[in-house]
Description:
The chain is of the alpha+beta class. The protein contains six helices and 15 strands.
Amino acid sequence: MAITREQFIDNLTKSGLLSAGELATLQANVPAGKRVFAFGTIVGEAYTSREILVSFQAALNRTLRNIVLTPLIKEYQANRALEFHFPPQEIRKLRVAQTAMHNLDVWSISEFRILFAGKELAREPSWLLRASPNPWDVQSAFDNSPVTRWSAAEPIHPGMLVEVDLAQPRKVDEVRLECSRDQYQVRLKLEAMDGHGQWVQIGGEPSDGEAKPLAGLRNAATAELKRASVDYLLVDEVDYGATDFRDRTAEWGLRLMDDKGGVKLYRVE
Length: 269
């Protein structure tokens, strides 16, 4: 008699031919077709119909890994404020350019804020955003999330930039970049487009200070998992942060679903 894929997998699991930890936990608690984020490779992954996002196997997975680790690693957090100040002027297009060369540092921006008289300009759908390289993630520098960031995704070199077209001239006197501190060799300049269509530097060297303290990072991180349609988090006891997930489950916005062989499955609430 024919059996379904699910019955076949369940039989293998019960027989002990598949992992009694990770795979059994997935099969018993995760509905078919649901996404699960995992830090490490899952034994017998090919035998499950659940979609496993392993942290190092794809660009999205690596981004999610960095988001989940941000509450745990201070240097990932946007606790640095680089501020460019200049006389008030009407500006439509401006950009921040990276000018240094280094084979290890990677440039990133958590939030790109444009201000006048101490008040941030409200971000509008009409704004056009551009970044080079990695243009696909530029929105992450304009989303007001404390755990996401645009990253160049490659070692720094001159010519990298993040550009904003405000759709119409707006009075501006400050640009504030909220960044993480894991980018020691990055050097930045601010440029605005003048009336002749030429880019001119404004603001001089940015001041380098502390950003306001960030709160609620754990819950913000799991909210980003949910936004990426990830409903479950699989954590091995040897994974970085395993103790924090265990001891501060409620702060993460998680619910423990199962614990087998040192592997815990959490549902993103």
